[in-house]
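User: Show me an example of a complex going from sequences to structure tokens.

Assistant: Sure. Here are the input components:
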Amino acid sequence: MNNLLEVKNLKVYFPVKQGLFSRVKGYVKAVDDVSLELKPGETLGLVGESGCGKTTLGRAIIRLIEPTAGSVHFEREDITNLEGAELRARRRRFQMIFQDPYGSLNPRMTVEQIIGEAIDIHKLAESSSARQKRIAELLQAVGLNATHAQRYPHEFSGGQRQRIGIARALAVEPKMIVCDEPVSALDVSVQAQIINLLQDLQQQRGIAYLFIAHDLAVVEHISHRVMVMYLGKVVELAEAKTIVREPLHPYTQALLSAVPVVDPKSKRKRIVLPGDVPSPINPPPGCPFNPRCPVVIDRCRVDVPALREIKPNHWVSCHVC
Amino acid sequence: MLNSAANLVETVAHERASTAPLLEIKDLRLEFVSGTKALRAVDGVSFAINPGETVCLVGESGCGKSVTALSIARLVPSPPARYASGEILLRGQDVLKMSKGQLREIRGGVVSYIFQEPSASLNPVFRVGSQIREALKLHRPEAATNDEVVRLLKLVGIPAPETRLRDYPHQLSGGMQQRVMIAMALASQPQLLVADEPTTALDVTIQAQIIELLRDLKERFKMSMLLITHNLGIVGDIADRVAVMYAGQIVELASANDLLTEPLHPYTQALMRSVPELGHEGERLQAIPGTVPNLGAFPTGCRFHPRCPKARHDCPERMPELVEVLPNRWVRCFYWDKPLPTPEEALNPNNPVLLQAREQFVRG
């Protein structure tokens, strides 16, 4: 099958400026040489701690942040250098939903205006009655009802607001949605509702998701494949169940062991990683994970490990594996 | 002379050895008054914390867990809050009847708090060392020295504390900031540490570090802890007992082990089913159907009945009490040990929300 999205060697560097003349003194390598593919109707989970570049990667793919190098192909078309109206027209095919359902909806617009804006920009409704009908359908699709259209965001709970955000993304019938931590701000029970909704929508409409989250249990649940990032680099990429059952990279193993388990009888050994994620301005030489790695060898402090396919469809960047 | 360190240690040791509960909340009712309306956020909450014990308060947002925890040191601003009834006995003394001076002594002295967002709890314009010293000045003036600050920072696992104490909060990562908060809370050698979602804003690996630290500290100092969380995984990691709250009331109270292996209340069961677990990929998550009721619009009778798989005709009519149904297991439900109702017995047999709830219950 053809890939819907192909990202090749994407880099996003932010200059660190200093002094009176804003001299560039270095770069934050937020995304450093990342490649990935996404098939139609597939979910790729993107996991990592804060500051690992997962959000920057998601945003660079849909050109909300300009990539420094590399290319993004969407439906076999290079969108890396598109501008203005051309880019806007392509944006109909890929949308985004955000983490904070409070911050991503304009408090002064009604739900109808919020969803209608997308329909207007892309001229998807011929008449105002068709527009209204479309909005009602979208609200229904995300589990709200047409009577909610005249209300303002503050009248809704967090879960309902996230549904409005999803309806807005769906309004333009996208083929791919970048979901940036869509459930992190929600309670467990509501979180489950939103995940179920996203899965239903994928089945009905064949939408592909790039699902960014830090909760491995959530990511495993919704994703077909999972990519683990650390300091701007991919450390492991495999099918969701492989990542959970046979993680190979020591960072993935630690991340998995840190997920709290409800069952009090599970006597899982927890690997508590020492220290924090190092500053991306001065990443450690060699493997970026080496200062916290429990199985570090001398080579890790010098050589940057390349991402290798260790088993079929299981990619790891580690000297020790 | 009055409060020499040795003396203090002795009294503290004595108090900790006694078996009386450190904290006893009895039938607490708290309302927020707005105009002529009184919205009851906490409605008849009772529980106790023994010396050295860790109790977890679990529930969805808006169920009253934070307000309950803040009440212990009377930290909910009043007005708009009003304590309608109840007692909060801290070492036998009722917090609700204390004078301002007494309150100042227990706040940070007997009870210390740490909150969800460490960056919002620390003052951005003071160095962390001086903020910790401030806590020491208030409660242990004789120990308000740099050495003690360094010792506290070391205690919470901050590397190179001698230099770190000159840092401003923004120079520290989220995990380090939370460690500073914990150091500050420990400065007064509290008997009860109240941690309100202490790891929610942190990454999983840092969350694991902080939970490990809290567990280590409570063992070392035989400190009691009240931990508020919505993450049931953390409960299994650290709690001795758990209180599950729904709409301002405790619906289930039991030891962590019992509750997590065999939840009895339909709400606890539904809450546990909705947690995604590792290694169960592909299964559909079982969200609790319906929504959490708003403050001031709580359903009549049992407050969970509009979402409950076991709801029967009389559930909206009378409110169940929190009853000890098995030794040390308290449940607020008439039908916790009954099977699902038959269509004749069930409340609104065709209500889609309740139908979905019952279907999930069958699937388990």
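The lines above are the inputs; the final block is the predicted structure for all two components together. Chain A has nine helices and twelve strands.
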